[in-house]
Structures are given as C-alpha cells and as structure tokens.
Fold:
Amino acid sequence: MKPIQILGVIAGFALCSALAGAQDPSTGSEPALSPSKGQAHSTRPVRVLVPAPPGGPSDTAIRLILTRLSEGLKQALVVDNRGGANGVAGTDIASKAAPDGYTLAVGNSGTHAINASLYRKLPYDPVRDFTPIVQMVTSGMVVVANPKVGAGSLADFIALARKQPGRINVGIAGATGELSGDALWAQVQTKMNNVRYKGSAPTELAILGGEVDVALLTPLAVRSHVQAGKLRAYGITSAQRSPVLPEVPTIGEQGVQGYDFQIWHGVFAPRGVPEKVINAVNREAVRALNAPEVKARFATLGFVVIANTPQEFAAVVKSEVEKFRKVIKESGIELL
Structure:
C-alpha cells in the first residue's frame, strides 16, 4: 500500500472546534459534534478522503470550498487523495472508517452510482455504507463530433447513424460517458462502436485527429475546440445548459425526452456518523458553495452548484443507482 498522501492542510487558525463533542462509546474516540457551551474542543483534524489523484474534478470541487468549510466549522480539514481504478480503493477506505465524524469522503456519479452495478463484487455499498451530506456540483457532458462526420446537428447525426449502425466510432473517456452515450443511442434507436481510452486527454486527442468520430467530454475540455471549429457540439447531456458553452442546447431540448445524464460530486460520511455532524457540515458546505465568488469560479470550470440538503442528496444517489443499473443491464456492458 502506498503511503498516505496528505495535501491541502488547512490550518493557521484556532482549533476551537465546532465539531467536538462527547466520546463515542462504539469507537472510544471523541466524535466531531457541534459542541454545547462548556464542552471541550477538539484539535484533531478531519480527514477528507478523495478517491482520485490531485487535480481531478472531485479533488478540485472540494478544494474550492475547503478553506471556507474549515473556517465555518472552526475545524482543521485535511485532504487525503487515494487514487485508484474508478475510485473504488479510496471509497472503500472511507466506507470502513470509524463513524466518529473525523472522516469525510468526496464521491461522484462513478463511485456512488455507476460502480454499484458495474462491479460484480464491489467492496462497499454506496447506499448502505454512506450518509450523503451535500451534493456540491454537477456538470453535463458534450456530445462532440469531428467535422469530417458531416452532420451539422444532432438530428442529422442520428439520421446518419441509423443508416450505418455499428460503424460510427465513439471515443470513451470513462464509465459515466460510456453509459450516458449508450443510453442516448438506445433512446434514439441506433448503434455505435465504443472505443475506450484511458481518460479525457487521450480521448480528446483521438477525436481531434479523426481516430474516432464522436465523443462525450466535459464542456471545459472541448470549449476551445468547439469555438475554433475543430469540433462540432451536438448537445449537452444534462437537463440544463452548461455555463461554459451556453449556446449549445441540451439533448433534451432537441427532442430526446427525459434524457439527463450528469457527472456530479458530493460530500459523504461513513454510515453512523451523528446527525449533528451531518447537519453542521451540510450547513457550512452550503454556505461556502453559495458564496458568489465560489459559484463564479465553479461556473468558469463548467460546474453548476447544487448545494442541497442531506435528504435531497440521498434521494439523488438512490435514483442515480437505479438509473445506471438499468442502463448497464440494457446495454450489455461487461461487468468488472
């Protein structure tokens, strides 16, 4: 096992914790609870597990609110990056952490929705083993095409694809993109040939070079290419338009009823963490996410801020698990 990589330590201010409390008899440790007057304060930092290397979307999302979250909670927070295939390793560590409030986790549509059905034996249950705290942000993907395809709109492209089923190559950067694409092709009744790449960057190069015809990539990744005419944008996979490419219509707007696939990022706690902790973190996270300068920064990165309640986020997770389970079953994708 690799040594723990600890980045982003937020310190330098008094650690009179708003998350300290009485001892948890199940763990023998002092749970991170909002204290009543006269209670002792904790100087122990809260670990925030991110199941990806530094610089990725989940890592970026939490770091943009980390300082405000720390200040609001009056509690030191430490980001602990645990990269691994599809976020399984880091998320599994979080699921087995003591429910004392000193471990939080960042999860996304992959770790907490897709993986539930993509893996034959996932070492954690994204619904049973976690308590959702707040859904931070979402982002749709853009269906883009190399200009050589020749179709000027989504409708034209669908008509073209139906004439040659299975012959159009789709660049795949990850599970969310693959399943979102499979759901779209199934809904418009056509078939594509998926070509998998190891991430967004190689997929981007492949479509720019004409190695594949179409791809589903983030708005930020394709914006400059679309604006330069190197790629053609057919639509956004989310229900709302992207702040990065507001001129590109959603796929739903173009007649594909009910189509809505997004990459989302949120904060979770291991199941069993006291409700006071959940509510305190949610309150300060929502406050941080709704700060005008934070929302503006997220918008420049192509994210839409959600900042919902724990109950609303829990409903989202359950719904997403079922949605992707259906897509995986119908698409016949090979399980891991």
User: Anything to note?
Assistant: The first helix runs from residue 57 to 73. Residues 1-31, 33-41 have pLDDT under 50 and may be disordered. The chain has two domains: 5-138+263-331, 142-254.
